[in-house]
């Protein structure tokens, strides 16, 4: 029996694959209540947990892990949605279709899980107090705000 927090790489990949099979089954079998509840739980926690394991943030208690996993999951889903919409609309008429979204999200989560498993015990520490992290955060925030203002103004003036 594994202790909580001591996942072996193979067990982690197997768990992710089982969860993905369940999500595929529930989404495509079109069971309304199960589709909503299981997909919501999967999409709100699994991407964030995989990202937390990928970043190897240490010293977080349970509340912080849950909070970060939900926030990272939401950010991940928004990022994947934007990427799919921007890239796929060049070749596909309906880029945000259910099939493409489910496949892309699950494939990306699986790739990130494989990265976590392949890294093993390599430690990637993230210091949120370094100058580099603060400047990266400010750059990303500035670019995001600029893009938001650009999109808002372009919709108003160039309809």
Describe this structure in words.
The protein is an all-alpha fold. The chain has two domains: 9-123, no CATH class; 127-159. 76% of the residues lie in helices and 0% in strands. It is built from five helices and no strands. It is globular and about 40 Å long. The model is unreliable at 1-6 and 121-128 (pLDDT under 50).
What attributes characterize this protein structure?
159 residues, mainly alpha, 2 domains
Percentage of residues in helical conformation? over 70%
Helix/strand structural class: mainly alpha
Whole-number mean pLDDT: 77
Total domain count: 2
Number of strands: 0
Largest sheet data: none
Distance between the termini: 61 Å
Radius of gyration: 18 Å
Outline type: globular
Report low-confidence residues grouped into runs of 5 or more.
Answer: 1-6, 121-128
The ordered H/E elements are HHHHH
How many helices? The count is: 5
Strand content: under 5%
How is this fold's topology laid out?
Blueprint lengths: L8 H21 L2 H24 L6 H27 L9 H22 L11 H27 L2
Compact summary:
The chain has 159 residues and is mostly helical. The chain has helices at residues 9-29, 32-55, 62-88, 98-119, 131-157. The chain contains 5 helices and no strands.
